[in-house]
Amino acid sequence: MIASEDDRNEKDEAPGSPRRLVRSDGAHSEWLHSYGRRRGRRLKPNQTALIEKHLDALSVTVPLDLAATFGKMPERLRLEIGFGGGEHLAHQAANNPDVSFLGAEPFMNGVATMLRHFEQKGLRNVRLYRGDARDLFSGIPDSSLETIYVLHPDPWPKARHNKRRLIQKPFLDQAWRMLKPGGELRLATDDPDYLIWMLQRVLIHPGFEWTARTADDWRLIPDDAIETRYGIKSRLEGRPATFLKLRRRETAA
């Protein structure tokens, strides 16, 4: 999850700093913005040590070059946007060693925690980008991703901030472009208002089909996923998550 903690140490770009969403033909479809801060609590010495030890070797640079990033063009590739502390990303990478994973997270605290999972599990199939995942989109070829995970994105609950939410038509258009036919976009949120927002947009998008057939399909965490600390916390506080699996259709017409 992308949190929104105050940052006493390091400021992000000023609100309103533009990030362009790039179409597959190289044109900029429209301006999008990245908001928020990049660090929450002060890093602990062990987190700093993990960053110094591992981050350079695992870091993705932009413009993204997948072959250079993984040593060769990955045959199977998945993307997690806003991996938070990395529990889900590390779980997926450990259980799918033949799949290459890209993870994007703007918070250095989350990156540091992910590096702990990386070291403990001996992961070799993960690369990390500390920043806005949309920076990577222009380097991801059409129909190349098996799965895109967006788990507990920032709900931006104030009405005047709703435009900052990630799940918008331009994002869904890009997700459709990057996913293979039959690939999955997986969403999760514990915010009822954001859930309605998501459904209002994904259900009218011609490129996706919601796969749920029974209530358990959206009430229960997917079999291959893991309940993160945030998910446990929200459930215990009476905010159970909803899980949406969206299958990429062959065409978006």
Overall description:
The chain has 253 residues and is of the alpha/beta class. The chain has a single domain, classed as Vaccinia Virus protein VP39 (Rossmann fold), CATH 3.40.50. Helix content is 30%, strand content 21%. The chain is built from 8 helices and 9 strands. A 7-stranded mixed beta sheet has the order 5-4-3-6-7-9-8, sandwiched between helices. It has a two-stranded antiparallel sheet with strand order 1-2. Helix 4 links the parallel strand 4 and strand 5. Helix 1 packs across helix 4 and helix 3 packs parallel to helix 4. It starts with 17 loop residues before the first strand and ends in a 5-residue tail after the last strand. The N terminus is likely disordered.
Key structural traits:
single chain; 7-stranded mixed beta sheet; Rossmann fold; disordered N terminus; 253 residues; alpha/beta
Q: Please give the count of helices.
A: 8
Counting DSSP E segments of at least 2 residues, the number of strands comes to 9
Radius of gyration of CA atoms, rounded to a whole number: 17 Å
Shape type: globular
- Overall CATH class: Alpha Beta
Structurally, how many domains make up the residues? 1
Distance between the termini: 32 Å
Helical content stands at 25-40%
Taking pLDDT < 50 over at least 5 consecutive residues as the criterion, the unreliable ranges are: 1-37
In terms of structural class, how would the helical and strand content be classed? Answer: alpha/beta
Instruction: Please state the average pLDDT score.
Output: 87
> How do the helices and strands follow one another from N- to C-terminus?
EEHHEHEHEEHEHEHHE
